[in-house]
């Protein structure tokens, strides 16, 4: 081992305070063992970021205190050259770079680079400010617009929109890709999160690209306090209850078990658990949900470099049948719950293939002014041993509920019989979507298109003036929005049918493989 000297000035970054915190993993021996290993790893990291000596090209400082205390620290001899170079470059930046270079900023850059070298979008470094904001989200109380974001294929994508949040009320949708915030383009996840948060009542402009329509949309939002809400079940009749979980947060952790107990007392015979657009959250909350729904046995298995652990339920509860609704944005803790329910034979999955985030992260605070690191510590597997990472869970009943929504009409000119062009084609597609038959969309404003416009306006209490102008375009766009908002939920409706069949026959209406259904 190589002995290195550390200056006393580095001691304010002491890691005596490193400990596990509320995070997206359970407070288990598995994670405590990781904390010990991480403690040692981070001490080595500190050695990398502390100055040893001046670069060879710089003369020793004459006014350097002669009695500066030093401390010995052992590092592998194989890393000595790397550490020497790293620290010399750090000192070189301080001495030569024309602008002022902050020591803390260089430490943060080193930390960020170390985590980025993993090539793992779920691991990263957070500054002190980013860490504090992250913790407020974990604790389910923060000020923002109410969106859950994730980096997918290099794009900051909205995975979920919190219920009753400013974003939901304005019409922001899961799947929207964030283009910019307040006119500034961002590609970094943390930068976007920081830009969206701010004092309560302040305004922010969110620009998104909606791939379903090909539109770039701008939303003017007012930041609000986002808090955890209690889980509430909806009675659908015939002993079937419905619970929609949009995130696994503190509210779910504290109230899900009590709500399940309440609906059972009300005579619940079956449950629809909606995990669509649920990107995950606290593993502890996911475990609580699974414990409330599956019998005694394993819930999830965690496998990492330092070992593996099986998290199990020890409850003797009598489970009720569960239909789990999933889609391509069902991820992480949601997949753990869905996998446990299916593997225990308690329920089936309906919808689309899930996202496939099969890894667990732990957040470790670094102390002082250096924020925290978020590190992938393990991959998880369902009770049957199914790996989720990268491939997700296939539904037992696949339902394509995507509705092709026409692009928003843009008013550029007055359209009337005889008009020809792409704007006429867009008008015809909108009329067809709304249920008014303009004939085969061909971009020609003929008599059938005119009759479709006349019928649409009559249904809205308007008379046809012989043309389609800006007022008519606005009315058509509004009708499209209303139809999309009020569209029936075919996945939930199918889940009700499936549960009724299960309650009547004792069997799920699926074979050994998944069946595919398409919305009409």
Question: How much is the radius of gyration in Å?
Answer: 28 Å
Stretches where pLDDT is under 50 for at least 5 consecutive residues are: 1-66, 512-520
Q: Strand order within the widest sheet?
A: 12-13-14-17-18-21-22
Overall outline:
globular
Total strands: the figure is 22
Distance between the termini: 69 Å
Mean pLDDT: 82
How many H/I helical runs? 13
What does this structure look like?
- It contains 13 helices and 22 strands.
- With 520 residues, the protein is α+β, with helices and mostly antiparallel strands.
- It has a seven-stranded mixed β-sheet with strand order 12-13-14-17-18-21-22, with helices on both faces. Strands 3, 15, 16, 19 and 20 form a five-stranded antiparallel β-sheet that branches. A four-stranded antiparallel β-sheet has the order 8-7-9-10.
- The longest helix is centred in the first third of the chain and has 20 residues, at 29-48.
- The chain is globular.
- Mean pLDDT is 82; it is low at 1-66 and 512-520.
At a glance:
This protein is an alpha+beta fold and 520 residues long.
Key words describing this protein structure:
520 residues; alpha+beta; disordered C terminus
Give the topology, please.
Blueprint: E1 2-7, H1 29-48, E2 70-75, H2 80-96, H3 103-116, E3 124-126, H4 128-138, E4 141-144, E5 147-152, E6 155-161, H5 166-170, E7 177-181, E8 184-185, H6 189-196, E9 203-210, E10 215-222, E11 224-227, E12 234-237, E13 240-244, H7 250-265, E14 270-274, H8 283-291, E15 297-304, E16 307-313, E17 322-326, H9 333-343, E18 347-351, E19 359-365, E20 372-381, E21 397-400, H10 422-433, H11 447-459, H12 470-485, H13 490-505, E22 515-518
Parallel strand pairs: 13-14, 14-17, 17-18, 18-21, 21-22
Antiparallel strand pairs: 1-2, 3-20, 4-11, 5-6, 7-8, 7-9, 9-10, 12-13, 15-16, 15-20, 19-20
Helix pairs in contact: 7-8, 8-9, 10-12
């Amino acid at each position: 081992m190589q002995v290195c000297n550390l200056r006393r000035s580095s001691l304010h970054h002491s890691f005596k305070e490193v400990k596990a915190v509320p995070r997206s993993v359970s407070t288990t021996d598995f994670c405590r063992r990781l904390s010990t290993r991480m403690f040692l790893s981070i001490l080595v990291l500190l050695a990398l970021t502390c100055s040893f000596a001046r670069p060879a090209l710089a003369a020793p400082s004459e006014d350097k205190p002669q009695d500066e205390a030093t401390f010995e620290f052992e590092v592998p001899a194989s890393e000595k050259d790397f550490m020497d170079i790293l620290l010399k470059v750090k000192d070189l930046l301080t001495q030569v770079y024309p602008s002022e270079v902050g020591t803390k900023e260089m430490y943060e850059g080193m930390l960020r680079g170390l985590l980025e070298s993993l090539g793992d979008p779920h691991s990263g470094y957070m500054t002190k400010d980013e860490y504090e904001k992250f913790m407020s989200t974990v604790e389910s109380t923060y000020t923002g617009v109410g969106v859950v974001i994730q980096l997918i294929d290099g794009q900051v994508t909205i995975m979920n929109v919190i219920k009753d949040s400013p974003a939901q009320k304005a019409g922001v949708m899961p799947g929207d890709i964030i283009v910019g915030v307040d006119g500034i383009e961002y590609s970094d996840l943390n930068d976007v999160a920081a830009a969206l948060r701010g004092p309560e009542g302040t305004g922010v402009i969110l620009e998104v690209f909606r791939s379903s329509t090909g539109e770039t949309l701008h939303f003017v939002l007012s930041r609000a306090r986002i808090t955890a809400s209690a889980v509430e079940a909806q009675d659908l009749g015939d002993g079937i209850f419905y619970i929609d979980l949009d995130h696994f947060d503190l509210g779910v952790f504290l109230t899900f078990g009590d709500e399940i107990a309440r609906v059972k007392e009300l005579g619940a015979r079956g449950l629809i658990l909606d995990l669509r657009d649920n990107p995950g959250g606290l593993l502890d909350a996911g475990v609580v949900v699974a414990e409330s729904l599956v019998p005694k046995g394993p819930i999830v298995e965690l496998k990492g470099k330092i070992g593996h652990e099986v998290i199990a339920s020890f409850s003797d509860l009598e489970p009720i049948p569960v239909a789990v609704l999933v889609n391509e944005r069902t991820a992480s803790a949601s997949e753990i719950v869905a996998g446990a329910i299916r593997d225990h034979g308690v329920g089936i999955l309906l919808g689309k293939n899930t996202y496939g985030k099969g890894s667990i992260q732990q957040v470790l605070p670094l102390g002082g002014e250096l924020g925290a690191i978020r590190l992938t510590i393990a991959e998880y597997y369902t009770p049957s041993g199914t790996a989720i990472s990268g491939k997700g869970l296939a539904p037992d009943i696949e339902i394509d509920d995507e509705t092709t929504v026409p692009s928003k009409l843009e008013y550029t000119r007055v359209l009337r019989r005889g008009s020809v062009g792409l704007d006429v084609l867009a008008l015809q597609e909108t009329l067809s979507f709304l249920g008014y038959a303009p004939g085969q969309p061909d971009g020609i404003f003929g008599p059938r298109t005119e009759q479709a416009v006349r019928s649409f306006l009559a249904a809205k209490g308007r008379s046809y003036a012989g043309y389609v102008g800006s007022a008519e375009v606005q009315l058509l766009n509004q009708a499209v929005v209303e139809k999309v908002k009020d569209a029936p939920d075919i996945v939930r409706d199918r889940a009700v049918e499936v549960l009724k069949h299960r309650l009547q026959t004792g069997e799920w209406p699926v074979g050994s493989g998944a069946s595919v259904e398409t919305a009409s």
